[in-house]
Amino acid sequence: MPVPEAYYQFVKDNAPYVYVTPGEGPDLIWGKAAFAAGFAVDFLYEAYFDPQFDSRSQEIEVKIAELSDWIVTQQITDVNTQACGGFVSAEGSTICYSVDIGRTVPALLKAYELTSNQDYLNSAKLAGTFLYNMQQKPSQLGIHDRYYGGFTRAVNTADAWLPQVDIESLYDLIALGMLQESDPQNKGIYQTMVQDAVNFYRPGLEALWLFFDPKPSGDGAWHRVGLGNETIYDDSIAYALLGLYEYEGYSGSVQKTYQAINAIGSSPLYPAYNSGICWAGYINVKAKALACDYYDAVAAGILTKIRQHHDKPSYDFSAKTVLKHPDQFMFWGLKHADFSPIENKQAMATVCWLGQLLCGYQQPLTRFTQVLNSKAENLTLHPLIQNGDSPAYGEATDIKAIVLPQKTEETLIEPGYLLNDYLVLHAFAPIRRHDKVIRNGIDYEVTSIQDFMLKNEVVFRKATLRRMQR
After folding, report:
1. Any idea where the domains of the chain sit in the sequence?
2. How far is residue 467's CA from residue 436's CA, in Å, rounded to a whole number?
3. Cα Rg for the chain, rounded, in angstroms?
4. Whole-structure pTM over 0.85, yes or no?
5. How far is CA 175 from the centre of its chain?
6. Could you give the CA distance from residue 439 to residue 198 in angstroms, rounded to a whole number?
7. Topology of domain 367-467, per CATH?
8. Beta strands in 187-274 (DSSP E)
9. Which of these CATH numbers, 2.40.440.10, 1.50.10.10, 3.40.190.10, 2.30.180.10, describes 5-224+308-359?
10. CA distance readout (Å), 179 to 110, 131, 184, 189
């Protein structure tokens, strides 16, 4: 699946800026950041090996080196500060976040692989030392009441700490895994860091918490956001999931957490939402309901590896949706109903993650998709985007499905309908209740959905359809 040329040019022209305002240029208030440069290198590294960009491999390598050189300049090297080895959160800042190690070290090690520039390896190793200190030092200095094993949120160059421990920092496991290979002399240290972190974070992730607030400054408990401690940021959970997945695969913890969030679907308040595209920016996990009307577009990219191997219908549908609306998906937040941006800012992280999704896309091949390709009908799907007496539907999407007549013994025929007004279809796409399906010019409403699972993965969906406007 080709990467839109606009994505490549956006990264090439604007990284390491965090945001770009169309028609105006980079957002100078947000400015440049090491994490934006890191994500840009991640995308460009994938593009470097993709046949689509063969003719530009030299240009890509130059940009990777340019960005990596800049990342190195954002690292604190003063050994007299607790922030030594960290990367400042933005150009001109003095604070270093633990999670940014996960966003920069993999990029530096990829750049080292391409260029053999020792500065990149040295910078990555120093960042590993910073992360070790963010795990160890707080308990030694009394910032935490004891050793927990998680990575403290942040510290600045004046040694002022943000003592909370964020679930998102599970993403750092990817960096630590790569450092084990690139810095074998300290492999044992990295392995212990990973194990201690996993042991601490696992219960927090499974319970869908965002951060832990240690004593003595905190209450020694896990938290979310919102007045009722009920709301999560989707990308924080997505990053944590990817970090743990890269470490232990589709484990019980990863599966439980992914399926819990992905199962939260549309509602009367947000009828257009489809978790198969990506996740909403805010989710109320206590109520199992959405807490905003927009998609956090970056999640479609972060979840790629998990979906490609364990939720193929969502992986396929998400990639095709992004490619169908490439310009809209350059913005960080998109309305569920029409993919219009909620803010006029294109995001470097979003474009880079979605670029990786499309760069590595492979058409899912399963026994069911083979059956679809040989025996399925072509149908038209219109997603419900507005409830009420006059429901509204979104733009058409072509899908394939096996369509069968409904059986008498399986049908509760409603007043005013006949048996032949009902159909059963088996589809790969993540269709939803109340969506509209058009078959042979006749409109049907999806009245029920049943997922068919194999080894804890959705293989296909069975939907019952009822003819509309009889």
Report:
1. 5-224+308-359, 367-467
2. 10
3. 24
4. yes
5. 17
6. 49
7. Thrombin, subunit H (2.40.10)
8. 211-213, 221-223, 231-233
9. 1.50.10.10
10. 11, 12, 8, 10
* Structure tokens that stand for 365 in this block: 């091949």
For the purposes of burial, counting CB atoms within 10 Å of the CB of 216, is it exposed (0-12), middle (13-18) or buried (19 or more)? exposed
Q: What is the pLDDT of residue 151?
A: 98
| CB 277, CB 292: distance < 8 Å | no
Distance from C-alpha of 465 to C-alpha of 76, rounded to nearest angstrom: 60
Helix (H, G, I), strand (E, B) or coil at 392: strand
pLDDT tens for 168-198 read 999 999 999 999 999 999 999 999 999 999 9
Contacts of 203 (CB under 8 A, 6+ apart): none
- Residue 23, SS3? coil
Q: How high is the pLDDT of residue 408?
A: 66
The residue ranges of DSSP E strands in 204-306, in sequence order, are: 211-213, 221-223, 231-233, 282-284, 289-290, 294-296
